[in-house]
What does this fold into?
Amino acid sequence: MTRYDFTDQVVMITGAGSGFGRLAAGAFADAGALLALCDLDPETLQDTVRLHGLDEDRILTMGCDVSAATAVDAFVAACVARFGQIDVAINNAGIGHELKRMADLDEATFDRNIAVNLKGVFLCMRAQLPHMVAQGGGAILNVSSVAGLLGAPMMSAYAAAKHGVIGLTKTAALEYARKHVRVNALCPAFTRTPILDPLVQSGRGNTLDNMAAAIPIGRLGEPAEIVQAMLWACSRENSFLTGQAITLDGGMSAG
It folds into this structure.
C-alpha cells in the first residue's frame, strides 16, 4: 500500500470486527493513527486487535449497535473522553440481506437494513460533526456501495439504504465545507468480504465467479484496494476532496 501519514490522528471506525473495517484498523494503525473501533459484536474487535498486533494503549474498542442513538452517542463520547478529538471517522458498519424481489421482501428486513445502513450513518455523523467543527475540522468517509449508484435487482432494501448514504454524504459536505469538515462516500462493487456470504449461500446460483463476470474488469475487488482508497480519501494531503461518491467498481457504473 502507498504510505500515508496519520501519526497521532484519532481515527474512528465502525464495523471494525470484520471486512473492510478490520483491514482498515490495521492500515490506519500502521500509518500511526490512534484508533477508536466499534462493532455490534465486541468479541470480534478482540480478534481484530490480535490479528494486527495492535497496541492496546493506542486503541479504544467498544460494542455498539449503530442503529441505536444512545449507543452511538456513548461510543463517540468515549472516543473524545479517551483521545480528546476525532480527526477521521469511517462509518463502515453495514449489513446485507437475502436476495428477494421487492414484492417478496418482508418489512422487518427492509426496516433493519434502513436502520443499520442508513440511519446508522446519520446517527454517527450527527454525533461526530459537532466535535469536528469544535476542533476546527476533520474528515468523514461513509461506506456506501455501487448499489448506492445503480439499481440492484433482488437487493432493494440494501440499495435504498446505500442510495440514502450518498444523499446524506453530499448534504453534509455542503453544510460543513466552510467548517473544514470533508465528507465523502466510498462505493465499492463486489469485494471479497463476508458480506458476500449470504449471496453465495442464497441458493440462487450466485458464485464468486459469476459475480466477477458481472464486473467489466473481470474480477472481484480486493479488500486491500478499498482500504487503500480509504487512506487516500481521508488523508490531509487530499484536502480538496469533499462531497464525492468515490466509485471502485471495476467499471460496472461506466456503461
Remarks:
- The beta strands are 10-14, 34-39, 59-63, 88-91, 138-143, 181-188, 245-248.
- The chain has a mean pLDDT of 94.
